[in-house]
């Protein structure tokens, strides 16, 4: 029985891993759609990066998972030398097109896990809505290895929170429950204030100092067509397969048209997490096991 439990756990872990690899490859299936539909990030985020990480003219910045350049273009506009490592070939192609005016920005196609960093370290390792797709056993340690002492890791996460067209988001749950078996029954969006600040992964690493959080809330209004396009870029939606996804999007589109006048407003919480690389030799040590003192 003990063995059964152990096997189940291993199977679960394998499934999580398989799902991560499958889902992270979906974005590049329609890079033009992603480029057209996905919003960029608030300008204040780049201002904060300038202040805490010196992101600006001459900064050497490594970006993990640049997509089609949602953050890469504003970073290049601020004068950064950007090297972006992007898994998807089609995403990289569109990113290069968007970065055509910035000779100091380069996009290479590779999984970050497999990529060989140059010898010269970076000032900043940055990743927007992409860090969680990288192997958890690799992402923090390899980011640290790419940074100069005192350099900065900066990751951006996007949370879907309550606000905007609240009635629509309550009603749309019915479409999800009809078509997406993974949707928990009665799911509701949380207020931004209820979203926990979670910096454990980086803080538990001896290679980084404390994590600082910066948060930005904003509302974006979409027409029915624009909103359905955004949903078509979500990896978990794409994973439903087209006949199911089409039916679910028809349900959502009809709800927006019939009950919300063809327009809804979505609230996003964007969170920037920043920590500095501890200089070599000064890595943090955890508490000593009791009895060793
Ligand atoms: C949700 S998109 C984010 C794109 C863009 N940074 C943005 O903010 O919209 C995730 C991106 O990370 C890329 N990606 C996923 N896993 C990766 C990995 N292991 N190494 C490099 N890129 C990866 C995907 O191909 C995709 O372009």
From TrEMBL:
Pfam families reported for this sequence: Methyltransf_25
GO BP of this protein: methylation
Supply the alphabetized keyword list: Methyltransferase, Transferase
Q: Which InterPro entries match?
A: Diverse_substrate_MTase, Methyltransf_25, SAM-dependent_MTases_sf
Q: Indicate the segments forming the Methyltransferase domain, all copies.
A: 62-151
What is the protein name stated in its UniProt record?
SAM-dependent methyltransferase
Q: What is a GO molecular function of this protein?
A: methyltransferase activity
